[in-house]
Write a structure and sequence with these properties.
The protein has about 55 residues and is an all-alpha fold. Helix content is about 45%, strand content about 0%.
């Protein structure tokens, strides 16, 4: 599944990731739309707030 959408709020992020999980999706790639390095931290905070803890190594 390929999807292009701009997720601009934690609620929108939560809704999209929940729908993808329900559809059986196990991997998602999220790309910041800004070049600022702080975007990585903001995305991590939004994922945690949306109830999707970070995993991986």
């Amino acid at each position: 599944m390929v999807r292009a959408d701009t997720l601009t709020t934690t609620d929108h992020l939560r809704a999209e990731l929940t729908a993808l999980r329900a559809a059986g999706v196990t991997d998602v790639v999220l790309h910041p739309t800004s070049s600022g390095l702080e975007q990585v931290g903001l995305l991590a905070d939004a994922l945690r707030a949306a109830g999707f803890p970070l995993t991986g190594g």
